[in-house]
Amino acid sequence: MSSERSSEKESNTFLKHLLALLLILGCLWASQWQFQRGIDRQDRNQGIEAQLTLTPVELNEIKDNFVKYEWRTVTVEGSFDSTNQILLKNRYFEGVYGYEVLTRFTASDGRSFWVDRGWVKAGKDAATAPVVSTAPTGAVSLTARLRLDRSLPQGAFFALPASGAGMISKLNAQSDSTSEGFYLDLLSGSQPSLTPAVPAQVPELSDGPHIAYSLQWIFFAGLIIYGRILIRRGQILTSKELGIEPTS
What we know:
The chain has three helices and six strands; from the N terminus they run H-E-E-E-E-E-H-E-H. With 248 residues, the protein is an alpha/beta fold. A hairpin with a 2-residue loop joins strand 2 (73-93) and strand 3. Helix 1 runs antiparallel to helix 3. The chain starts with a helix and ends in a 7-residue tail after the last helix.
């Protein structure tokens, strides 16, 4: 009987050690994952801040490697196509619900893409359309920020799936048209009406909670070690009280 109890205690102790070890390894992995996310976010923020401070460049000088120029201020000449205009819903400004207005634009070099003309307030109810200014006709020049398809804000276009990913590509497929794989956040233009009352916002450039979360996971790993020690000590004390020789 004593031999069976000793064997059982050894088996339970091994399993508890193994479970604690797996939990500690999981915490350390989660800590490393959060830490890397924090580093990646810092790199992204530094990249955006650097691009925002650079002098504007003409869009017709950028033929490829658009990733290198994302968030860079560009200038371009061309004309709007007001017949191709969409509203990006689920957009908020200072807590007020509204839409981003995107209008098709054809540059003087022939490239066609979408221009985010800024935010507008939603109507008083679902049946009331928002008030959207008409894009000017004829040739105009724009000053805007270059954005990529993958960096579109989360949301959904009217009559399009609400996945929030690759919306330019989905819109082109829906309308049976093609456009460049980038779009522009309008800042100003050759006409006063082109300056948005509420331009598209730059994302919050904070480091986020990732480093704190990383330290939190390390703390959890320490709690597991401490808890395992307390459980083991409790086993030893209980075994002594019962007159049972503790096992390792």
